[in-house]
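Researcher: I'm comparing several assemblies side by side, and this is the next one on my list. It has 458 residues spread over two chains. Same procedure as the others: predict the full complex and return the structure.
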Amino acid sequence: MKRVDKAVVLLSGGMDSATTLAIASERHSIIAVHFNYHQRTEERELWCFNRLCRHYGVSKKIIIDMDFLSKIGGSSLFKGARPVPVAKFKKGEIPSTYVPFRNGIMLSIVSAIADRNSARYIYIGVVEEDSSGYPDCKEGFIKKFEAAVRDGTKNNNISIIAPLVRMTKSEIVATGLRLGVPYQYTWSCYESNEVPCMKCESCILRMNGFSGAGVRDPILPDLLKSNRG
Amino acid sequence: MKRVDKAVVLLSGGMDSATTLAIASERHSIIAVHFNYHQRTEERELWCFNRLCRHYGVSKKIIIDMDFLSKIGGSSLFKGARPVPVAKFKKGEIPSTYVPFRNGIMLSIVSAIADRNSARYIYIGVVEEDSSGYPDCKEGFIKKFEAAVRDGTKNNNISIIAPLVRMTKSEIVATGLRLGVPYQYTWSCYESNEVPCMKCESCILRMNGFSGAGVRDPILPDLLKSNRG
């Protein structure tokens, strides 16, 4: 398939952004952008980012250091912050893992990159339905942000695409498997141990996704194999 | 006057942001935020920022390093970039001093700061009429960005105030003088020489402002005095 137009993809290295990259790669030449904000899991995420970029042959990689985010503070995801809580999913409650306006900041930076590189599309893997309830992961927010970006950029023709926003986690896994996403190169856990903690919200959401799609998550240890070995 | 609610003020150290700080200080307790993005004039701007903060007794100062902006590139304002052009003001043309989506990025970061500190107001000194025509300095953009910020933050009650957006440069100077703004602690020139170059857009706009208001700019050398000495 001929790839038309450039797209900037936010690629954290989690399962959602990897699936989003797979979708964008079908149509566009890719500029992949990764954000380092001194989160506990940065090293592992960066490894996934580089593997995914190689897998999809992206044309340009940009790594943005957001030192300042931990200076603003306010989230248990930062290194040295209070512990990451176990999953709760209380309706209408925003958990302590919330990083204030993180998607707003990341979207504004990739909008600058898109404007500078004459890319017409921005892809972001936000999920509204099956999420932790962060306010900047909702479709309404994305639409309003897009309207602001169109007004505030030189090329004023940028579209922000959030292909997963209405999907459940198992729909995301099913889509990704159909597109051949190498999920072994993704990391979702909020902690940075050898294996996922399976207690934090992000682990629970991922586990539901894979079990709902009826497949085994390739990053989980193969218990059968290790029992045998 | 009793100061109610907190406001976050973007304070570059130029005449517009200094005037904006003066206006915000009349009503609010202030968190002042300065951005360093490796522009040619950063040292001088930072000096102005600190002086202005002391003058207005701001309650909190935050300096944000935006290293990444020069990595995105695209503006003659960065150190080591092509030279700053002399003023042209061609209708409908965006000059090379444009930093892609700079106000969008800065507004998203101060929105995070406002959300984190439960501040209800953000003040930004953008000017639409008497400006260089940057797309992210227009009132329509600010309104749309505010709508996105309300959707995307935890406290969802943030207002973005742009008190100068419809003023001419001479109205800004007149307003500032009425409020006693110490313009000797401001810098507008895009170059970083001992005295303003008086050739770049920013110098021309400032000069028009002071001459329109019928007052002498305190940062210009006193030619009469130096001739005498």
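Model: For your comparison table: The domain at 6-228 of chain B is CATH 3.40.50.620 (Rossmann fold).
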